[in-house]
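Listing S7. Sequence submitted for prediction.
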Amino acid sequence: MHWHTMSIEETLKELDVFVDQGLSTKEVKQRQQTYGKNVLEAKKGKSLFRKFIAQFADFMIVILICAAAISLIVSYMDGEPDYFDPIIILLIIILNATLGVMQETKAEKALEALKKLSAQTAHVLRDHKVSIINSTELVPGDIILLDTGCFVPADARLINSVNLKVEEASLTGESHPVDKNALVRLHPDTNLADRSNLVMATSSVTYGRGVAVITGTGMNTQVGHIAKLIMEDETPMTPLQKKLAKTGKVLGIAALIICIAIFIMGLMKNLPVFDMFMTSVSLAVAAIPEGLPAIVTIMLSLGVQRMARKNAVIRKLPAVETLGSATVICSDKTGTLTQNVMTVTQICSMYGKEKMTGDFGEFLLSHAALCNDALLQIDKNHVDIAGEPTEKALVMAAYHAGMNKLNLDSTYERIHEIPFDSTRKLMTTVHKSPDGTYRSITKGAYDYILPRCSNVYHNGKQVPLRRNEKNRINALNSTMTGSALRVIAVAYKNIPKGKNYDDTSLEDDLTFIGLIGMIDPPREEVKEAVRICKQAGIKPVMITGDHVLTATAIARELGILSSMSESITGEELSRLDHDELCNKIPGYRVFARVSPEHKVRIVKAFQSRGEVVAMTGDGVNDAPALKAADIGCAMGITGTDVAKNASDMILTDDNFATIVSAVKEGRGIYDNIKKAVHFLLSSNIGEILTIFVAILFSLPTPLVAVQLLWVNLVTDSLPAISLGVERTAKDIMQRKPVPPSKGMFADGLAFQILFEGILIGSLALTAFVIGYRYYDMPALLKSLTNQVDTNAMPGSYVPWVGRTMAFAVLGLSQLFHSFNMRSRRSLSEIGLFSNPKLVISFLICSFLQVTVISVPFLSRVFQVVPLNLRQWALVLLLSFTPIVVVELQKKFNAKKREMNS
């Protein structure tokens, strides 16, 4: 129903209500049965149990569960039940699931916040009398009374309005209260922000009063429509989630293939079936980096803490790295790119621009401050102004020019006033000077003041206003409005002492003083933030409900837009279908006068072109787009609860520039996660090759499952986490964003991981062969000839020393290798100790690795034996080798880059 197109009489007839009676109690009950309560529906969330179970849907987790089950069944069938390995694996799985549930504890609360925005009570006319009721009881057809300061409880068509101004910024993006007029009838295609005969739920009355008839309640309101959009839209997976999911599937499938291949190979070599099952399980454990999900979560959590210290609070952990992949930032204008404070930036006499602190400026601004209802309060040098934004700007400008409104009001007593009227577009006050003279001051819209002026203020005098001077003033006004300034004109009239004037004559035969231009100015730091975004390959885009002229002026000043052809209005946007919008959207930088539906369309159009979209906003109208975007960034100070709960990140200082720091941090975190994945996979490939090659050449199994778990979870975890706090590279904001389609293993990373895995595997296998050939075999021969006590080495047919040396080299070589992951630059350039956490992790993990080998109780658990000094020397020599090899590789690559540059 297009209520804005209907007259007051047609609206009342359609809703079957009389304006002087309201609905009866009986009619209200009937309509409540039809329309329900004036509340918003909530989307039923998942239970904790369902969230927990959902964590097990990951492919890697399924493989691990299978590995645990096989390990338990095989050991049980072999007559020696082994619960240690399965318990360790299951503990890892449960830990990962718990962390996943914790990430979702702050799940979608936007609808609850929308409910809180609803007014709690309303003044309603029912049964011929006005009463105060709970707003949830309202129904279409109710007559409500609106006054300054009250919230609008439902969507309604105005019946009567007196100087009514309504704040709708959270719904429409308007930066200042809008005038409402009950008497107008509008075209069906009128934009939401321009429907001046309607008021909408969750908006607030800032000035005047009115009477309205409710046309929509609950989910049938504009805010209810936004609620539906929030419920219908699902938040997309982040690029990291997609890549890790893909990596998990590849590793899981690879693990299954390896397990089957090894099992078949063992059967062909007539090895025991049960032994081959256990070997296959060991390989599955080696192939899958079980700790990766937990490690990534911890790394993201560390990043969250760092970002919180920089005023960016992350609500959903995976969203941290998404910023690093962002290619488009769609930003709301009001309060995000701008200060959300109307500010006087220019004043003009009939001759052009003037200084605010000069004689003319003081004269003009003092008159504007007198004809003004804003209240100035000064407390210990802290200035606060209460009132309508435009009037606040005028009073603040006068204050900065040295004129205190409190002193002006006490010196020039106000004795009469004509309040602002949206039809006249004027406000007039009459003041008595200390010398007993009287003066009326009129301020308002330029088009309504100049025709009433017969004189103009010039050098302290009033002189006749001629046609050429009017033309000059018209040109000045056009220039100011063309710069997106909101222009207020001020005029005065001296009133002879003792003569009475009626209200009409006070606003005739005026003396024009000048023009005052104001705007919601951009934040000072945003221009630099926009420049950095462009340098980083990120496209900044403005999406606002404000007028296109204002939006483009701000965008041009900030460097977002270079020509008007890069802007489009919501009305023009509505005429484009989805395919047309997707084709044309790369050419636009400013979207003005848009609705919530438009914002979602814009976000999805960018996404359809493969862009990773970050959306910033603060209002209810931003919530659906915040949720649909790859990452939604809400404002923490001015942001509504709806916007905050629909977002992935909250900027606590409401500063667009903070998002640049967040992008830099996100890129650094993504880099560090890649380093951790690189480190873990190269290490795991080394483990796989150690076992695979040993079986291939009919050697004893060099490592058992518990040893692989120890290496994967203990010696890998702390170094991997420490890589997560590696310093962000200085040039990171000079790089282009990582394309979402670009695999994690692109740019030769897969080859590098394979090479380093082969290196680590070769070193571990070398240690095993040395230990087995030179220590285990002689010991076995001696035991067979009874030259040693067989109890000294229980089960002497097991390669105890070789397995222990392989276990030690595998763990320690990975710890040394972690230093290689810090940067593609040499350790001599970045400094060996510049990441103290990694050094500490290395020392702790090395101590643990040595301890499980050297302490008898632990050595029995991990099926190893203590090593002598010569054996430890060999272990350290082999373990340090990755540092030497990779450093040589880095030097070679650096020279290659120099030659190519």
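Caption to Listing S7: primary sequence and predicted structure tokens for the chain studied. Residues 262 and 268 are 10 Å apart (CA to CA). Residues 103-119, 787-796 have pLDDT under 50 and may be disordered.
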